[in-house]
Design brief:
Helices cover about 40% and strands about 20% of the residues. It has about 150 residues and is α+β, with helices and mostly antiparallel strands.
């Protein structure tokens, strides 16, 4: 049975907490928005002089837009920019991480067992003999890939 992702965020809207829920898997648009945000953060923190005020403004807008899109427009950009507490920002970052599948891949789990090896390949080919008087004999050859 597949686990359903549930993401919750609580924003302060009109001085009251408002809770929003998303309970479906991230879509391609969410992944793309996460990549854009990740790229912007890498560029802003990779500058020798560090991030500028403009970089922080761009990051805020991309983060807010990601949240609005991720939670399917249940709130506005203004709601998120003016009503996101540090816990809400943590929820957005968790959603980005889940969207980008940080540490959530079941393929990466180590169960302590050796990975399964492919079965040996069996091919049929004619083997040539050194005796010219005998016709080539067809044999099954098994080789193991290791």
């Amino acid at each position: 049975m597949e686990e359903i992702m549930v993401h919750e965020i609580t924003l302060d809207i009109n001085n009251k907490p408002a809770k929003f829920v998303r309970n479906d898997e991230p879509h391609l648009a969410d992944i793309t928005n996460g990549l854009k945000l990740q790229q912007q953060r890498l560029q802003m923190w990779g500058k020798p002089e560090g991030p500028s005020e403009n970089d922080f403004d761009v990051n805020e807008k991309l983060l807010a837009q990601f949240a609005v899109d991720f939670w399917h427009g249940q709130f506005t950009l203004d709601d998120i920019i003016n009503g996101a507490t540090s816990a809400a920002v943590d929820a957005i970052n968790a959603a980005i991480g889940d969207t980008m599948q940080y540490n959530t891949s079941t393929d990466a789990k180590d169960d302590g067992k050796d990975p399964k090896k492919s079965p040996a390949k069996t091919t049929k080919r004619r083997l040539k003999t050194s005796n010219a008087s005998m016709p080539p004999v067809s044999k099954t050859v098994t080789s193991s890939l290791r």
